[in-house]
Amino acid sequence: MNGTASTRADAVFRVLRHDILRGRFEPGQKLRLAELQSRYDVSSGVLREVLPRLAEQGLATATAQQGYRVVTVSESGLRDLTDARVALEPLVARMATERGDVEYEGAVLAAHHALARAPLTGEDGDVSEDWISRHETFHHTVLQGCGNSHLLDAAERLRRISAVYRYWSAGETERVHRDLAAEHRAICEAAVARDGEAVATLLAEHIELTTRLLLQSTGRRTAGAEQATAG
């Protein structure tokens, strides 16, 4: 693929990924080539490069003869994902604090500073794209000093899948019922202090709180739907 086509594929990948994370495609929705071509004004060839990349990141699934779908979400899937993340991410973060150097400390501080300066919500009241980007960068930076690319890649993939749940389901509930800024500040301070046990504990609590709030939010929506149907 030439440079122009590759650049176009990168741009479409970023937009489609953003739209999935922001809930513009329902979990489990089929990603039909014809619809995507029209929506993004792009060729089928570019999409055939983009869709496997989404699957590699865990944001889509591929089925023989059926094409690609947005990854599905479920309570059991979220619980399993949370268990996997709590087993892996704190381990990687602990390793990063033990193996990282002064450049690691500076990178964590810079990533946290950028996140702290980003507005959580945009003009539409939804989570801002700038905050999403800086949030991903911050968590990646905390983990990246671990020195083991296999562990880092596995942890990053789990984080990307969890983003579908977080941005599709959390909404106002997560923003109102927690102090995200304080959580991120504590993780940053523990990482910079090279306190592996603290950063592991804080990161596990951060992940588990997100899951609890998502499940609460899902439960309220389900109950509301059942009441509306009964009414």
From TrEMBL:
Q: Which domain of life is it from?
A: Bacteria
Q: Taking every annotated instance into account, which residue ranges of this chain make up the domain HTH gntR-type?
A: 6-73
What SUPFAM superfamilies is this protein classified in? GntR ligand-binding domain-like, Winged helix' DNA-binding domain
Q: Name one Pfam family in it.
A: FCD
Q: Which InterPro entries match?
A: GntR_C, TF_FadR/GntR_C, Tscrpt_reg_HTH_GntR, WH-like_DNA-bd_sf, WH_DNA-bd_sf
User: Can you provide one Gene Ontology molecular function annotated for this UniProt record?
Assistant: DNA binding
Keyword vocabulary terms for this entry? DNA-binding, Transcription, Transcription regulation
According to UniProt, the name of this protein is: DNA-binding GntR family transcriptional regulator
Organism encoding this protein:
Amycolatopsis endophytica
